[in-house]
Structure prediction request, 330 residues.
Amino acid sequence: MSELAVEVENLKGHYKGTFGEVFALDGVSFTVETGEIVGIAGESGCGKSTLAELITGFPMPLLHHIGGTIKVYGYSIYDISKEQLRKEVSCKILSYVPQYSLESLVPIKRIRDFLLEVMRERTGRIIAKEDRAKILESTFNHFRSLGLDPEILSKYPHELSGGMRQRVAIAISTLWNPALLIADEPTSALDVTSQRLLIEMLYNLKEMQKTKTILFISHDIPTLLQLCTRCIVMYAGGIVEDGPMDDIIQSPLHPYTKGLISSIVAFNPDGTRESALVSIPGKPPDLRTNLVGCRFHPRCPHRMPICEVEFPPFFNPQGKKHPVRCWLFK
Ligand SMILES: Nc1ncnc2c1ncn2[C@@H]1O[C@H](COP(=O)(O)OP(=O)(O)OP(=O)(O)O)[C@@H](O)[C@H]1O
Ligand code: SF4
Ligand SMILES: [Mg+2]
Prediction:
């Protein structure tokens, strides 16, 4: 039997502040097996980053874990102490490359000094002179194995392109060979060539066993398609469909997923458009309000009376390989 990398059960997370309370994640459950590369898809604001932040156990300010459990390689993230989380889980078991990490490298520090700073934060102690050489040597080898010029370690972030900064951030995050890597929109600010290099790097990290399991967050389905074997589709704070990537692309079940797939423009080899771009009319609901029924119902072309009053459970449609949260499949 395969080992479970992630077990999320009925997870709820809210933002609380002067703006009120945002019910950003409302009852999310899924598991990920070791070895999977799982894509997390959905429109802006559906809760992808909120999910990632909560899995790390150190959610950003204003975000609160309201309920539900998360286990990462057996560690129950909200039941163990922050000390244990920092010492045993962060970086070693779970490494997280947050959205906008392009800007995470400190501009006034060379990459190698930033790296030593990260080490100091992680271990809670100043790195002794004799250890520095060892750390830099293993980083040098790690960079080289990932096809990055180790000379980069002597550079300042502004001397590197955006794509290179992003790859450096991922290289540093995987120094401790984390069993699980979560990368949130690592490609979204990059040009096509840099995107390809970054996806190759993630693929190689797994091939080289520097990480075992990847959660790859992107609002862009074609990007997910290049790397992921499975796709979790989120809408308005919950999961609506979860299945093998090929199934999601070729035979999406949920009307929202169908809309997402239709919004991908296909091009012929001669550059002409093969299919027309169809966008989903309407916009997602305001997550500060109490939502009734299926969250997609105001935008759904297949809406039925029950959709407006009852939140659909997951159904496993006959002849289909994956579950979907929609009354059409009752
Ligand atoms: N710091 C915050 N304070 C208040 N609400 C927030 C905050 N961050 C996110 N939210 C709200 O929480 C919900 C989920 O946001 P989240 O950032 O997780 O979405 P996302 O799927 O990652 O979007 P994107 O694709 O734009 O990154 C949204 O309604 C968003 O407006
Ligand atoms: S439950 Fe109803 S409103 Fe929601 S996606 Fe299915 S058909 Fe549409
Ligand atoms: Mg996000």
